[in-house]
């Protein structure tokens, strides 16, 4: 199985022009409070100019159904990424009302296998991310990857994919790939001075393909 590549936190036309030419299977936009938050109208104008990615991910954090629907009215989202403390009930509601794939981000911790088992029943994929100083999402910090094979097995039993996020960069991606994740999700690790960086992406993709 080849690893799926998700590049997240596309912030500008310049970022998008670069990311759309890469080997990304998924490109993500942040519609939550963050320095990477984007305006749906801008995202739509970049898509009209440069084309749509294979899969477009909208990242939300404890958003209301109305907020998700408003973004979907402007941006052709394929996947709704819930990157907060959304409950299983809320995920079911989002799926029923939005009719899109749902990717649930879960914070890595001692209950991660139980969490994947519970949330995996109402999600199409799980993203495991790290928590740092109370922050969840875009931390730039990796967690211990020793548990990755167990997490993959748990996801496989449920018939879903499991992506790894948090502090992945060209310098450490080989170590992670040895644990055979289904997908990797990067934001800060492919940036230089807050912008997506072509050299970092090319180096990363060479490491993945080698
Ligand atoms: O990137 C953000 O600012 C962000 C804000 C709110 C929720 C999620 C966010 N990003 C997610 O963080 C991971 C990877 O981040 P990094 O590689 O450690 O910088 C990815 O899932 C993004 O979707």
Automatic annotation (TrEMBL):
Its EC number is 5.3.1.24. Residues 6-204 form the N-(5'phosphoribosyl) anthranilate isomerase (PRAI) domain. One of its GO terms (biological process) is L-tryptophan biosynthetic process. It catalyses: N-(5-phospho-beta-D-ribosyl)anthranilate = 1-(2-carboxyphenylamino)-1-deoxy-D-ribulose 5-phosphate. Gene3D superfamilies: Aldolase class I. Pfam families: PRAI (PF00697). Pathway: Amino-acid biosynthesis; L-tryptophan biosynthesis; L-tryptophan from chorismate: step 3/5. SUPFAM superfamilies: Ribulose-phoshate binding barrel. It comes from the Bacteria. GO terms for molecular function: phosphoribosylanthranilate isomerase activity. Keywords: Amino-acid biosynthesis, Aromatic amino acid biosynthesis, Isomerase, Tryptophan biosynthesis. It is an enzyme of class 5 (isomerase). HAMAP family: PRAI. Belongs to the TrpF family. NCBIfam families: PRK01222.2-1. This is N-(5'-phosphoribosyl)anthranilate isomerase. It comes from Fictibacillus phosphorivorans. The lineage of its organism: Bacteria, Bacillati, Bacillota, Bacilli, Bacillales.
